[in-house]
Design brief:
heterodimer; A: Non-ribosomal Peptide Synthetase Peptidyl Carrier Protein, Chain A; 4 helices; globular; B: Butyryl-CoA Dehydrogenase, subunit A, domain 2; Butyryl-CoA Dehydrogenase, subunit A, domain 3; 3 domains; eight-stranded mixed beta sheet
Chain lengths: 80, 378
């Protein structure tokens, strides 16, 4: 989980250069991201963590904080 | 770092070029004059499998990588911008279903789209909603078993011949994507739109929707992600293929100008020996190469799933569409009076280039996105 958070934070730092993003901070409420960000984020998640983001997962509530993103990755990559 | 096509990609490029020279170029002026794509060309595209160029082989597509898809769009665009528009919007619809569709939607539509049995189109723009895509006014209201669509879509490329539309409407005030099948859409009226400046064979239509019923199963993706995910994803492919098509238009302008500059004599020598003509040719050569490199980079990043591919596609489309305008403008200038007459294709390239600077995001929308992205990166 912590390793994934590091990767997520590194990706997000491209968009939040001068802001130290907290694990529970709402990244959409900060106003730094544009309309393309959601696509970029999904591509990052799929490539970095080798998972598929299904249309039903495409809810900003799943992606709005580092903790939620890490939980989402954990849930999608859990080995059955 | 290595920037070169693989042997397979080079082989495809040569076959695409041969196809365009044989089956597209000879029809392009007719498409422009008649404001439609000929049946012969459509049949050839289908026979070659190009309507499935963007789809995986599991659905009957060609399974091409995105660089090779780009090469196809360059060569088809070199022949006729309107035919390239067909590949673009059909691909946007097909990839929208591939990315966001249910298993049933994919099984029902993708093999038919790959084989050309069904033509797809993308119905987003409206009389009052262009660049502000989320501002569409078409509505979807819930009814027993599905939704009723009401509103108007305008400037819909290939709308005259499409069998299936990805259509965007406000559902409970949230932009949502729907599949609308023309054959089962009572209340849908398709009106031809003619008289365009360029890409005149694009068979553009206005769609009037009057209580058009679509079943629940035709909601694409889920409620509220129509623009933020579905449309932006489709438009990314659209932008990418338009960018490549612009290179085709620019390449055609360059090739016509090189031939003309060697053949046309004034003051006892070919005009190509004039240094002011050489200056224009130099700008054309370097501009085409620059645009192609940007497109190749965007394609490579798409093939490896890199999130940077999205902004690089914006960069590529911005530059390539301006390049097509500059290069085709030079081509008209080099051709002199001939460049201003419909008997010479550079006149058409010049008109087609302008269309491509507006569709899939105007240059000004690109400037907003690209500049903000650059400022954000500091």
């Amino acid at each position: 989980m912590e390793e994934n958070k590091v990767k997520i934070r590194k990706f997000l730092s491209r968009f939040f250069k001068k802001h130290e993003l907290g694990d529970d901070e709402d990244i959409f409420a900060l106003g730094f991201v544009n309309s393309l960000f959601a696509m970029q984020l999904i591509m990052f998640l799929e490539k970095e963590f080798e998972l598929a983001v299904d249309p039903q997962d495409m809810d900003f509530a799943n992606f709005k904080t580092i903790n939620l993103l890490a939980s989402f990755v954990e849930k999608k990559t859990v080995k059955v | 770092m290595k920037i070169e096509l693989s042997d397979a990609q080079q082989g495809y490029k040569e076959s695409f070029r041969h196809f365009a020279d044989s089956y597209i170029v000879p029809y392009a002026q007719r498409h422009d004059a008649e404001e439609r794509i000929s049946e012969e060309v459509l049949d050839r595209l289908i026979s070659a499998g190009y309507l499935g160029s963007m789809l995986p082989t599991s659905f009957g597509g060609m399974g091409l990588d995105m660089v090779t898809v780009g090469l196809l769009n360059e060569e088809i665009g070199r022949g006729c911008s309107a035919v390239r528009s067909l590949l673009t919007v059909h691909g946007m619809a097909a990839l929208g279903i591939l990315r966001f569709g249910t298993a049933d939607m994919k099984a029902q539509w993708l093999p038919r789209m790959a084989s050309g049995k069904a033509i797809g189109a993308f119905a987003l723009s409206e009389p009052e909603a262009g660049s502000n895509a989320a501002g569409v006014k078409t509505t979807a209201t819930r009814t027993a078993g599905g939704f009723l669509l009401n509103g108007c879509k305008r400037w819909i490329t290939m709308g005259q011949i499409a069998d299936l539309f990805i259509l965007f409407a406000q559902l409970d005030g949230k932009p949502t994507a729907f599949l609308v099948e023309k054959a089962n859409a009572e209340g849908l009226t398709v009106n031809k739109m003619n008289g365009f400046l360029g890409a005149r064979g694009s068979m553009i239509a206005e769609l009037q929707l009057n209580d058009v019923f679509v079943p629940e199963s035709h909601l694409l993706g889920k409620e509220g992600i129509g623009v933020s995910h579905v449309a932006l994803s489709c438009l990314d492919y659209g932008r990418y293929t338009v960018a490549w098509g612009c290179i085709g238009t620019a390449q055609a302008s360059l090739e016509a100008s090189l031939h003309f500059a060697k053949e046309r004599e004034q003051f006892g020598q070919p005009i190509g020996s004039n240094q002011l003509i050489q200056k224009m040719i130099t700008e054309m050569v370097v501009t085409v190469k620059s645009a192609r490199l940007l497109c190749l980079q965007a394609g490579y990043l798409k093939d490896i799933g890199d999130p940077d591919s999205i902004m690089e596609t914006w960069n590529a489309k911005y530059f390539a569409s301006l390049a097509a305008n500059q290069v085709s403008g030079h081509a008209v200038q080099i051709h002199g009076a001939r460049g201003c007459h419909q008997d010479f294709p550079v006149e058409r390239y010049f008109r087609d280039a302008k269309i491509n600077e507006i569709i899939e995001g105007s240059s000004q929308m690109h400037e907003v996105m690209i500049a903000n992205h650059a400022l954000q990166a500091l």
